[in-house]
Amino acid sequence: MALMDAKQYEASLRRLKLKVYMFGKRVENPVDDLIIRPSMNAVAVTYECAHRPEYEDLMTATSHLTGKKINRFTHIHQSVQDLVKKTKMGRLLGSLTGCCFQRCVGMDSLNALSMTTYDIDRKYGTGYYQRFLKYLKYVQENDLTCVGAMTDTKGDRSKAPHEQEDPDMFLHVVKERDDGIVVRGAKDHQTGAVNSHEIIVMPTLTMREPDKDFAVSFAIPADTEGITYIMGRQSCDTRKLEKGNMDRGNLRYGGHEALIIFDDVFVPWERVFMYKEWDFSGQLVEQFASYHRQSYACKVGVGDVLIGASQCIAEYNGVQKAAHIRDKIIEMNHLNETLFSSSIACAAEGHKEPSGTYYVNTLLANVCKQNVTRFPFEIARLAQDIAGGLMGTLPSEADFRSAEVGGWLEKYYRGRSGVSTENRMRMLRLIENITMGSAAVGYLTESMHGAGSPQAQRIMISRQVNMEHKKKLAERLCGIRKDDGPT
Amino acid sequence: MMGRLRIGLKYCGGCNPRYDRGQAVASIKKRLEGRIAFVSYENPNTQGILVVTGCATACVDLTPFKGRPLWVVTSLKEVEQFVETMRKG
Q1: Interface predicted TM-score (ipTM)
Q2: Residues of B at the A interface (Cβ-Cβ below 8 Å)?
Q3: Is the CB of residue A274 less than 8 Å from the CB of residue A207?
Q4: What is the CATH number of the domain that holds B50?
C-alpha cells in the first residue's frame, strides 16, 4: 500500500490504540472526536490529493529506495527540483485546508535523519544509516504519517540538560538493555501527534558530552506502551461542539498540538538512530530546523485563503473599490509572495549532501522562517482592518437561526445588495478563525515559534553570512583595500 | 474511441495557478468532443500528451514524455490555441 487514500488513512488511525487525554478525560475514539476530527481531515487531504490528477505532480514522488510512486511526505529529496516541489506542495495544501496539515514535520525529520545517520556512521563506523533506510522503506511502503518530536519542555532554560533539577525536562535514556533502550521525558507542541502512526524523536538542542544521555534519536509506533498524549487547547475550540457549523469559520479542517509523555518507553535497537553521539545533536537539530523553516511555505497557502476572504468581505461590504482597500490587498499579496519567494529560494539554492540527500540553503531557509515570524501577523492585521469590527462582535449562529431575534440579524447585518447576510457572516467567521480563532494557533503562533522562535533564526543568519567578504567589498570600493577586483 | 485522438492528460501540481486548470480542461473536452479523448498519461497507447500547467513556469518534468507529441498549455490563451490546433486537425 505505497499510496493510501483518505479512507484508508482514517481506517489506519482507527487501528491505533492511542492513550489521549483532553479536558481531563480519556478520549477513547480520537478519530471521531468533534474537536480532534477536523485536524484528521486536514491530514487526510495529504492522502487524497496524492490520488488527484490535478495535484499528483506535487503530492507524489518516486522512491529512491524502491522506484515506486510514493507520497512526497515520505520522500527523501533527490534533487533541487524535489526541494522546490516540497515548497509548492506546502503552499498547495495550506490553500486547500486553510490550516496546518501537520504532515511536514515527519518529512523533515526523515530527511534530516537521512543525512545525520550517514554522517555519524562515517565518523564512528556505526550502523545507523542502514537501520534508518530500513525504517524509511517501511514508512514509504505503508505511507505513514510521522510526528517529528523535537521540542523538550526544557525546565530551567539557563541550565544544560544534565544540570536540570529534574532530568526528565529533556527526554533521556534511563536504561540500556540487550534488546534496546528505555527513555523518559516529554515532547511539547507536537503538531498532528494523534493523527500520526509513528513518532520520530530527536534531541532538542546542541548538546555537550555531559549531556550524552540526552543525545538520542529513535522512532516508535505512536501507540507504544508508555506513551500518553495530552491535547493542547486552541482559541474557540469548543465551537466545534456547538450545533451548526457557521461559527467554526473553517467547516472541515483544523490543526492540533499535543504534549507527548514518554513514561519509561522501550525502544528496540533497530529503531535507534542516535545513541549518545552528542557531537551530532547540533547537526541533527540544524538540519531538521532548516528543512522545517522551508516548510513554512504552508503559511503562504493559508495566506492565499485569508487574502481571498479579505477580498470577498470587501466586496460583500461594498468597499472593494476604495483605494485604501485595494492597496491593503496589494500589500497582503506582496507580503505573501515574499514568503513564497524565500521558501522557493532556499530550495532552488539547495545542494547534495554526502548521503545523497538534497539539503536547502540554510541561510535562505532561516531568512524564510524569519519572514514567517512577521508577515502573517501583518497580513492578519490587514485582514482584520478590511473585515471591520463585526468580525469580533458578531452574534452566534444560534442567534441568527433564532425565531425571536434572527430576523433582526438578517436585516441589520446585511451588506451589499445581492449578498446574503449568512454569506457575509460565514466569511467574517473564516477571517476570525484564521486570525484569532482555532486556526490562529497555526497561522500566527506556529509562525512565530514553530521550527524555532525568531531569535533562533537570527543566530543562524548571523552565523551563515560571510561578514569578512562584505567588509572587503566595502574596503575595496573606498580605497582602504587594494586588490585585483574589476578596474 | 475510434477516430478520436487519445491524449494523455498531465497536470502540474497547482500550487498557485493563474487560471482554473480543471475548468480549462472541461472546456477543452466540451469543445473538442468527438475529436479527442483524454486518457491517463500513463496509458501506453496515447497519441500525444497535453500538459496543463497553472503558470508559465511549467514545472512538470517532461522527460517521461520524450519522443511523444506534446502540447503544453500554461494560460487560457494557450488553451485557446490548443483547441484551434486540434480543430484544424
Answers
A1: 0.90
A2: 9-16, 21-22, 59-61
A3: no
A4: 3.40.50
